[in-house]
Structure formats: C-alpha cells, structure tokens
Amino acid sequence: MRIVLGTVLAALSLFASIVSSQKLPLVVSTWGNADFQAAGQRAFDYIQKYPKNRVAALVEGLSECESRQCDTTVGYGGSPDESGETTLDALVLDGPGQKMGAVGDLRKIKDAARVAWAVMNYTKHSFLAGDQATKFALQMGFQESSLITNVSTTMHTEWLNNNCQPNFWRNVAPNPLKTCGPYKPNQNAAKFSLNSKEPLNAFSQVSHDTIGMVVIDTNGDVAAGTSTNGARNKIPGRIGDSPIPGAGAYCDNAIGGAAATGDGDIMMRFLPSFLAVEKMRSGTTPRKAAEIAILRMKAVYPEYFGAVIAANKLGEHGAACNGMATFSYVVGDGNAEKVQVYTVKCF
Ligand SMILES: *[C@@H]1O[C@H](CO)[C@@H](O)[C@H](O)[C@H]1NC(C)=O
Ligand SMILES: *[C@@H]1O[C@H](CO)[C@@H](O)[C@H](O)[C@H]1NC(C)=O
User: I want to staple 276 with a disulfide (CB 3.0 to 4.6 A). Which of 178, 238, 310, 324 is the partner?
Assistant: First the structure.
C-alpha cells in the first residue's frame, strides 16, 4: 500500500513538474489595455532572457508602466493630489527570504518601483515615505524632477473649477460636497454613519488603475509588486493599498503571489493579496482564491471597485473583480512568446 501510494505521489509530482516546466516562467499583471500589456511584455521578455532575475523582471515591468504613464494612473503626470502634486506609491516583494522594499507618498522622483527596490537592497527597513523617501532616493543616485505635467495641471485646474469635486472629505465644514477647503471637523455632520452605506469614494477605472504584478521564475521562485500614483484628488499625505504588503501585493515562495487594484482606501483594510495567497496555500485554485478575497470585501462594501489577480507555483492564474462589468489582466507564460489578455466577468 505504502509503495503504491509512493508511486502515485512520485507520478503526481512528475506530472506537476512537467506542467510547471511548460508554464514557467510566468508573469501575471493587472489591466489589459495596450500600455499595461507592454509592461507585462517587458517583464516577460526580461525573465525569459534572464531566467533567475525575477525581481529585475518585475521592476522592469513596473517601470515600463511608470514611464508610459499607464492610463495616467501610474508614474508621473497623473492623479494630482489636492495641491496639484503627483506622488507615487510602489512595492517590491521577493519570495526567497521574504524580502521587501516600498515607498509611499514619494515626491519628485519618477522611478518609484526602482526606489522601492533600493529600499530592499540598501537598507534594513521595508518602507520609506514622503519627502524623506525622496532624500533617500537622491542619496542612492536617483534624479529629482517635477512630476507635474500639463495633463496633471489640467486635471487639477478642472477640479478646482468644479468646487473641488469629487473629494475624499466627510464630516467637515464647510460642506465638502459643495465647497473647497480648508475644512474643520464638523461634529454636527457626524450623523453620517461610518459604514458602507455612505457614498462611496470617487473611484472608478478612470481614477485608479494600479499596476500589480506577479513574476514566477523557472525555479518556481516568486516576486510580486505594484506601482501607482494613487487616487486623483487625494488628500496630500494619502498612501493607498499598493505599497502595503498583503494589500497591494503579496507573495510566499512556497505558494505563489497575488496583487490588487481598485479602491485602495477600502481594499487595504482586508489584506486581499495576503488572503488570496493563504487560500492558495490551503489548495484553492488562483481563480477561486481571488474570488474569495473579492467576496470578503464585498460583504462589507457591496459596491466597491476593485480586482485581485493570483498565481501559483504550478503556473496557474486567475482573477476576480467587483464594481465593474469585466476586468482584464495580462499573462505571459511558457506557452507563448507574447503576453495574452484574459478577461473575467465581475460579481
Ligand atoms: C538591487 O540589487 C541588484 C543586485 O542584487 C541590482 O542588480 C539592482 O540594480 C539593485 N537595484 C537598485 C535599484 O539599485
Ligand atoms: C505645456 O504647457 C506649456 C506652457 O503652457 C507649453 O509651453 C508646452 O508646449 C506644453 N507642453 C506640451 C507637451 O503640451
């Protein structure tokens, strides 16, 4: 009996390694339009050329989106905050050794993903934020430049001309639904309950498309990360889910990786990427794991906007989404030279 079982297990693991040798290396990344495809392709080309450099491939992919200003929601020149400045969040995770580097509210440096990588490489910290992250980047040899462009200036001017609508304030005076700040706390407005019945944030596909990516190399080692310029008209200082490990992205070298995109102010409260990886650990398929993570958030915020992608070490992948009709993501695997776009129906 034992011998038979052993033979079956050996056959299964042989089968698994045949499957994985066909599907690895694997790149899975959020959103399917042209610039996001190019970012996925960049990472996929890189990991095919340098099969063990999964973190470099990840950062190449994220950086491609930053320099293309994917949907003006990644990189410089998009999503101006209330003061008109663009600030960046990025995360880089490496499975072996559970390594991490992240930046939040990064100012005046275009290369957010590379600065996150520098935090991993050159410090014992995991996460730097704000102007001090800029100082760190300058020491590490990055170039300072304005992240404001004509496009982001126009976005900001239109917002000012529209009485600063939409914005992210509540329970303040003057009425934030009608008037620009500065604001003060308004206890009388606190009849606004702090629950999901409240008007949802001004998020949509237009205002928030993070690139989140999982890269698995031919050894089955996993890296994951994100890059974004956050939410349009955000309150200065706001950091979203993207650079938060377990929220914007997560990986576990024994299991696989996941990444999230959408209304980060909501999503970070649930650690959806961590949850998806944990579900895969207990044997759930990536698709089902992503669905469970999405449903966990939908139970509290039925209308929220977001998506989760997940991939395991066998090279299987999947996604789930809420608050839009469909969600597309990009996959590069051993079956083709070009990345392909997969589309899932949302809940
Ligand atoms: C991090 O270190 C690797 C070598 O391990 C190097 O190739 C890469 O360029 C470094 N990244 C940064 C941002 O300096
Ligand atoms: C941006 O605006 C400036 C000043 O209004 C103008 O000179 C410049 O040509 C514009 N650049 C682009 C790329 O439109």
Answer: 310
Average pLDDT in the chain? 91
Whole-number pLDDT of residue 18: 47
Spatial distance between the Cα atoms of 268 and 34, rounded to a whole number of angstroms: 27
Contacts of 345 (CB under 8 A, 6+ apart): 325, 326
Q: Which range is least confidently modeled, 95-109, 111-125, 178-192, 305-319?
A: 178-192
Between the CA of 169 and the centroid of ligand 1 the distance, in Å, is 40
Instruction: Report the C-alpha gap between 138 and 161 in whole angstroms.
Output: 35
For residue 305, the one-letter residue type is F
Nearest to 310 by CA among 185, 201, 219, 213: 213
Task: Find the helix or strand (DSSP H, E) in which 170 lies.
Answer: none
Per residue in 139-190, pLDDT (tens digit) is: 999 999 999 999 999 999 999 999 999 999 999 999 999 999 999 999 776 5
73 counts as catalytic = no
Question: Would you mind telling me the total number of residues written for the chain in this entry?
Answer: 347
- Which of 109, 121, 136, 140 to probe ligand 1 with, by most ligand atoms within 8 A of CB? 121
Q: How far apart are CA 32 and CA 266, in angstroms?
A: 23
Helix H or strand E encompassing 251: strand 249-252
Q: How many helices (H) and strands (E) does the chain have?
A: 9, 14
CATH 3.60.20.30 placement within the chain: 24-146+202-345
